[in-house]
Write a structure and sequence with these properties.
With 275 residues, the protein is an alpha+beta fold. Helix 2 crosses helix 4. The protein has five helices and twelve strands. The chain is globular, with a radius of gyration of 18 Å. The protein folds into two domains: 177 residues, BirA Bifunctional Protein, domain 2, CATH 3.30.930; 51 residues, SH3 type barrels (Roll), CATH 2.30.30. The strands form two sheets. Strands 1-2-3-7-6-5-4 form a seven-stranded mixed beta sheet. A hairpin with a 2-residue loop joins strand 5 and strand 6.
């Protein structure tokens, strides 16, 4: 997306999923500009991590998919960049959101937004970068009766206001694009400040500050059925979470290494600091 231009937003009343719709279009158009987006009012087959079903009522959520390009080594940061952009957007409405590593944004202890990044298979590349579709599902005007699970929430429930989804969309895409450009200017190095603002905080430190998971006692479910308990101590430059296990070892875990990560107290988003 060139400076001063507006990204194309393809709007649909209903699709199987915004992410799959944009992925199909990106495979057909390998020169698709960054931040080309699909916005849907409803999804028939929305999915989250590990193929989990994403439920929504028509018009109650912001269902967005957008295209960016990153290097292979930077793939984990696509989700975290989007998560930070969502946090910025919610903070502008007076909320105190947090990142629930690896791909949720929580507000008032409940999930208001889920994020999924997907590589576009056999897509074209621009200057050696890979095409990534970032799907963002933000509950906007979902009522308590519409919530799919008790651990979910929405912007309207958190603020007590009717939400203008168009305003949220405009702000979110603008912030996401700004954060993405800063990441590219830093050479995809999350430990390096934006060269245009050398005194700025690095992306890694921003992610650390926003991640509610850090410092808490957590329980992880692994793909092989085992569980790991420990303290979430840090994020590293690869976007992995570092867990201090009960035996004292410090182990890094990438997104693909886990099925679930939740507070050890059994809640969804009540991350209490470990003693």
């Amino acid at each position: 997306m060139s400076s001063g231009s507006s990204p194309e937003i393809r709007r649909f009343t209903c699709v199987d999923s915004a992410l799959s719709e944009l992925a199909r279009a990106a495979r057909e158009d390998t020169a698709m500009p960054d931040f080309t987006s699909v916005l849907a009012e409803h999804q028939n087959a929305g999915r989250g991590r590990s193929g989990r079903e994403w439920l929504d009522d028509s018009g109650s959520s912001l269902l967005l998919a957008t295209l960016i390009r990153v290097n292979d080594a930077d793939l984990p940061w696509a989700t975290l960049l989007a998560g930070l952009a969502v946090c910025d957007t919610l903070e502008a409405r007076g909320l105190t959101p947090g990142l629930k590593w690896p791909n949720d944004v929580i507000a008032q202890g409940a999930k208001g937004c889920g994020i999924l990044a997907q590589l576009v298979p056999e897509s074209g590349s621009t200057e050696g970068r890979r095409s990534i579709i970032v799907g963002i599902g933000q509950n906007t005007n979902m009522s308590a009766e519409q919530l799919p699970v008790p651990t979910a929430t929405s912007l309207s429930l958190c603020t007590g206001q009717v939400i203008d989804s168009s305003e949220v969309l405009t702000r979110l895409l603008s912030i996401f694009a700004r954060r993405y450009r800063a990441f590219v200017r830093a050479g995809g190095d999350p430990e390096r400040p934006d060269p245009l603002n050398p005194q700025s905080i690095s992306l890694l430190d921003q992610a650390r500050a926003a991640t509610a998971t850090l410092g808490a006692s957590v329980r992880m479910s692994l793909p092989d059925g085992n569980t790991v308990e420990g303290t979430a101590e840090d994020l590293d430059a690869q976007g992995r979470i570092l867990i201090r296990r009960e035996d004292g070892t410090l182990e890094p875990y990438a997104v693909g290494d886990i099925e679930h990560l939740r507070p050890a107290n059994g809640s969804y988003g009540d991350f209490q600091q470990a003693h």
